[in-house]
Amino acid sequence: MKRTLSIILLVALTMTLISGCGGSTNANEIKIGINYELTGEVASYGQASVDGIELAIDEINAAGGINGKKINAVKYDNKSDKSQATTLATKLMTQDKVVAVLGPATSGAFKATIPEANKNKVVVASGSATADDVTVDANGVKEYAFRICFSDSYQGTAMANYALNNMSATKAVVIMDNSSDYAKGLAANFTTTFEAGGGQVVATEAFVAGDTDFNAIITKIKGNDFDVIFIPGYYNEAGLIIKQARNQGIDTPILGADGFGAPELTEL
Q1: Of these four, 14, 48, 124, 204, which has the most CB atoms within 10 Å of its CB?
Q2: Is 77 exposed, middle or buried, given 0-12, 13-18 or 19+ CB atoms closer than 10 A?
Q3: What mean pLDDT do residues 37-66 have?
Q4: CA 24, CA 93: separation in Å to the nearest integer?
């Protein structure tokens, strides 16, 4: 994280100098923004990211900073809300005058801040925004948007290949968060790869973030013949789906991507 943060800030400083816009630095510091989900639906991801960022800042500053300048972070909680994330990104860029904004964590919230980054010529970077179109889309490269993680196409493909080649799975069920860009991308790539490899997705069921009762979905999929379940979504709902599926007697292996990467998954 320390090396990655240093590179991002050097890129941000270079782009700021080239554009003549964006944030400003004084003689002694580099001001960056932290725009993460510290409360709300995906707070576990946001807090973990901020912990890493703050540790990296402490280590960089203790080693003399970047080109002799110490890093000063301005931190806000976007409360796992996309519109709040956009508002805070604007505030960090236009009022706090940061040279770069780290976060948000989720693809949807991060993408919502990119127009503000382009308008204000300030770099935004995320360590977990995995949607394929975060940095490049049909309109081309997003000049001020960066990420330090793999994409949904990589994850979805990897999980499908694992199911096919390591588990010898031939029939899959997908239970996806239909309100999430992240989940939609994962589901699409998993399905394409799994079926191209000779497998069959026998059912795709959807929920939305915040749902807590998945028993109807689980009852519905029990009528199918399948040997793996893929849940593209975040730990909050995934943990409950797993628990309720097991309570209904489904012992089929369940796969997920980095959305499973929180201790709360096994605590729900």
Answers
A1: 124
A2: buried
A3: 92
A4: 10
